[in-house]
Amino acid sequence: MAFFTSFLAGLVFGLGLIVSGMANPAKVLGFLDLGGRWDPSLAFVMAGAIAVGAVAFAVARRRTQSLLGAAMRLPSLQSIDRRLVIGSVVFGIGWGIAGFCPGPALVAVGMGQAKALVFVIAMLAGMGVFEWLEGRKEAKHERENRSKASHRGRPSRRAH
Amino acid sequence: MTIDWPSFTPWTALAGGVLVGTATAMFLLLNGRIAGISGIVGGLLRLATGDVAWRVAFIAGLVVAPMVYALYTDWPRPQIEAGYGTLVLAGLLVGVGTRYAAGCTSGHGVCGLSRLSPRSLAATAVFMGAGFLTVFLMRHLLSF
Question: Which end of chain B is less congested by CB atoms within 10 angstroms, N or C?
Answer without folding.
Answer: N
